[in-house]
């Protein structure tokens, strides 16, 4: 997926004929063809988007996503093209009411495999001694313990003192922001295959919280967020945080890393090679199909 990210205050997105025009405060203008874009991400306030630009984007199947200063999507515009929505959602709600166990178990199992393999990759690449990944493996029935081992091991790779979403340290704030970008993309693919993003199996349902998005994202976090962020930190990236919020340049850097990862190729255990975005859609389709009783769900595990 090719993403057009607008992170500077005072930018205007308009059109000229069938082309997007990005006008900056300094008077500079950049023309972008819709053929070069799959997604537009508005990453800051103070951006003007004309109605013609919105129409041009939607006519070309281009999403427009609006993020707040913490990276949380507060709005999204896209063409709706759901698949078997009624049938799929009926099956989804029925599975939740019956206490479906196999699908959430497979999601957690896949997440833990990806976490273990991620740690194993960096320990081998950086020459770090220890078999921390083995402590993570096999903890399918104890997700909380696997998570503690995982973040402890990451702390041996980057100077991060554990995972705390409420923390305002640069590492945790960066992960929060990057996960929000992942959530936004996952919500779209779930909706497009007919699933209700607000009805999950693992995370508790809370008003306004897309619990299925959080469930489904667990399989992809180590691959499409943790890996590119760790790469950034290892290569010297130091995010700037003030009052718990990343500055515009840091947000842009993190967004680019995550979007590049989603555009990059991944190979799963089944031998299929796709971009990260394609993998998310493929496994969303598998999940919807499994809920309808058409196949058994097998989670996403990357071959490193």
Q: Could you please describe the fold and organization of this structure?
A:
The chain has two domains: about 5-75, CRISPR-associated endonuclease Cas1, N-terminal domain (Ribosomal Protein L15, Chain: K, domain 2); about 85-290, Four Helix Bundle (Hemerythrin (Met), subunit A). It is built from ten helices and twelve strands. It has helices at about 50-60, 85-95, 100-125, 130-135, 145-155, 170-190, 210-215, 220-235, 250-265, 275-290; strands at about 5, 10-15, 20-25, 30, 40, 50, 65, 75, 240, 245, 265, 275. The strands form four sheets. Strands 1-5-7-8 form a four-stranded mixed β-sheet, with helices on both faces. A hairpin with a 5-residue loop joins β3 and β4. The longest helix is centred in the middle third of the chain and has 25 residues, at about 100-125. The mean pLDDT is about 90. Its EC number is 3.1.-.-. This is CRISPR-associated endonuclease Cas1.
């Amino acid at each position: 997926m090719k993403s057009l990210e607008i992170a500077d205050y005072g930018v205007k997105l308009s059109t000229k004929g069938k082309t997007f025009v990005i006008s900056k405060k300094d008077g500079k203008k950049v023309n972008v063809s819709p053929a070069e874009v799959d997604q537009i991400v508005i990453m800051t306030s103070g951006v003007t988007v004309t109605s013609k630009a919105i129409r041009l984007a939607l006519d070309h199947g281009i999403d427009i996503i609006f993020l707040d200063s913490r990276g949380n999507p507060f709005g999204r515009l896209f063409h709706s093209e759901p698949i078997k929505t009624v049938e799929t959602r009926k099956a989804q709600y029925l599975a939740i009411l019956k206490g479906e166990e196999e699908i959430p178990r497979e999601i957690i199992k896949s997440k833990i495999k990806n976490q273990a393999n991620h740690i194993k990759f960096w320990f081998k690449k950086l020459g770090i001694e220890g078999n921390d990944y083995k402590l993570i493996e096999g903890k399918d029935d104890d997700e909380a313990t696997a998570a503690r081992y995982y973040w402890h091991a990451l702390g041996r790779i980057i100077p991060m003192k554990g995972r705390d979403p409420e923390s305002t340290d640069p590492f945790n704030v960066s992960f929060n922001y990057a996960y929000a970008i992942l959530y936004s993309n996952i919500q779209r693919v779930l909706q497009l295959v007919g699933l209700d993003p607000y009805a999950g199996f693992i995370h508790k349902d809370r008003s306004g919280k897309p619990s299925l998005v959080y469930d489904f994202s667990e399989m992809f976090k180590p691959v499409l967020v943790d890996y590119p962020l760790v790469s950034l930190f290892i290569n010297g990236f130091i995010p700037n945080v003030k009052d718990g919020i990343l500055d515009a340049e840091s947000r842009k850097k993190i967004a680019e890393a995550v979007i590049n990862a989603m555009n990059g190729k991944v190979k799963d255990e089944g031998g299929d090679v796709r971009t990260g975005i394609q993998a998310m859609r493929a496994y969303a389709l598998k999940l919807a199909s499994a809920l309808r009783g058409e196949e058994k769900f097998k989670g996403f595990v990357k071959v490193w």
